[in-house]
Amino acid sequence: MNSVLPITLIAGSKGAIGQAVAAKLVSSRLLLIDRDEQGTDANGQDDLVRRYKVDVTDAKAVAAVVHATENEWGPISSVVNLFGIHQVCEFENISDDAWDAMFDIHVNGTVNVCRATIPYMQRRGYGAIVNMSSSHLSPQARLATHYVSAKYAIIGLTKALAREKGPFGIRVNAVAPGPVDSPMWRGSRYDNQIEAAKAERSKLIPLRRIASVDDVANAIDFLLRRESDFITGHIIPIDGGESI
Question: Quick check: 144 and 91 in contact, CB under 8 A?
Answer without folding.
Answer: no
